[in-house]
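Reopening this one. Same input as before:
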Amino acid sequence: MEKLILPNIPDLHKIDVYEANGGYQMLRKALAMKPEEVTDEVKKSNLRGRGGACFPTGLKWTFMPKNSDKPKYLCINGDESEPGTFKDRQIFEDNPHLMIEGGLIAAYAMGIQTIYLYIRGEYNKWIKMVQKALDDAYAKGYIGQNILGSGFSTSFYLHRGAGAYICGEESALMNSLEGERGYPRVKPPFPAQFGLWGCPTTINNVETIANVPLILRMGWEAYSKIGHPKHPGPILVGISGHVNAPGVYEVPTGVLITDLIYGNPSIGEKYGRGVPGNKKIKAIIPGGSSTMIMRGDAIEGVTMDAEGLKAAGSSVGTAGLIVMDEDTDLIRVITRVTKFYYHESCGQCTPCREGTGWMFKILKRFENSEATMQDIDLLLDVANNIEGNTICALGDAAAWPVQSMIKRFRDEFEQRVMKSNGAANAKKKSPDIVHALR
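Same output, byte for byte:
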């Protein structure tokens, strides 16, 4: 497939190179259209958000009120902090102007005067690169007052996060931008009605926004034919874990997960290039650590898109594919994942604040070979009481990996308990042996 988001063009991050390859022409095209026509193109393309929720982007844009006395804002969410997710930074490095152009087109379509890019604070290298790209776009007149003589004006600011995972959640992100603690807000009201400083706000992921110029360039009909018909377009997949070639790969949605891991020689694509030592796959996490874990023997025929993974009992999330081979200690994996969510819980909701801690403590008992069979159901009970009982989705993100791990790998927990019992019995027998020797 022709790469559209990350084409193989040297120095594309430089504005002169981007312009020489058709860059900012779609902004010109959009400014010659009516704003509602731009939104309609995106809506018809069936572009779905690439930040995890897969919500239809064009539909979200229609929620922005057309007539409002208040300022309107666009937030581009680049705070990717979830284990296994690292694809937005590839856009920042290789094609930042595509994201900037997409943001400007989105702002024009929704009549927005101010754009914020909220970027993960640890991304120091990429922050400098994106700021340079923004400065260059300002200097060329693509951002600012009366853009390209159209009469449309908007500002574009980069905001550096302070390193909290929860600030990737849209309402916590808004609180953080306002200078407050990154606590999620109760919804409704939703951001389109009451967002930044109480004003209408639309929040889109970096990769989502980067798709917008592609839709205008190709036309919605051609774009919607890429990949899976219900989840079309190119998608960036970050492959990590036990693969020979980890990295970020641009593929059409609907590609087989086995092709992503092993490659597909028939189409000349290698992607992850298989598992080191040709070991079997014990498990995968398809879309970042918050998505449901899958057994390695259940991935045949499963595709990387919202529909395919939903049917397989998981979700596409951010397409952060984590591969684990047959020697992986899954108890250790889920313990570390749970520790992450325990650490990153903002503490606002009791089920999340207390529950993630309890899950971590119980899992440590398994890891230390001190657990009992009753601990398996206790762990599941705690996870079930977190799910759906918190203000934001962090509680669900912490519960789902635990629930799916027990559902699909209960034998791993039981074996650890039996190992624990064996160790305990050995300890009991030791004194007798010593006594006998005496």
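So the earlier flakiness isn't reproducible anymore. For the record, The longest helix spans residues 410-437.
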